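Issue 218. Parser rejects a valid record. Input:
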Amino acid sequence: MTKLQDRVAVIAGGTGALGGAIALAMLQAGATVVVTYRRPEELDKLTADAGPLAARLSGESVDVTDCDAVAALASTLAKRSGRVDILVNAVGGYAGGKTVWETEPKTYATQMALNLQAGFALTHAFLPAMVQQNRGWVVNVASRAALVASPGAGVYAASKAGALALFRALAEEVKPYSIQVNSIVPSIFDTPANRAAMPTADFASWPKPEQIAKVVLFLCSEEGSIVHGAEVPVYGRT
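Output the parser choked on:
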């Protein structure tokens, strides 16, 4: 069983379907977990789902696309916990259905903010302390769309491809330190929102958030320490 006792984990977007599953998995493994959120009701649900483990769970309402806000969060957590061991970027958003030339500039800006800027803001704020302590685990939630042609989702694909490039470079940059940096690459997975969007799909073939969370847990464990700079597919047979 993976054990993360005495570790402090920050999960950006940790109240979403996948982020919440990752948060619960890390709580069950013994970590102290801080999630960022935008919707209080999602934090309430996660807290309820955590049950007694919620004693090691806290939430911070932060716009993680804002570098100053994320830097302030990193400073606050450093004072509160003394360190952050694990950083998971589970922030993201999808907008599609239009060609590149039909996509509104506002949609482009939002996609880049959620899917690329957030990853930069988080690593910019939290990596210096990890470098200083010579210890850390970083996992980015990417997308299969970054690796394949996606007609009607070009801007989304571009934002996710940019994030993959960012974390590839980061993995190279931290090689002198005991810091693991990896990305997981999901495609469609089983959430109420995805079921509603694709009501005729075969839900049974979709990976469950809890299954994907186990992969993240492994990448943040001592057992997964040999894995670095990887882009791990977690889309099963979809």
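Fixed in the parser; the record now loads. The beta strands are 8-12, 32-37, 57-61, 86-89, 136-141, 179-185, 231-233.
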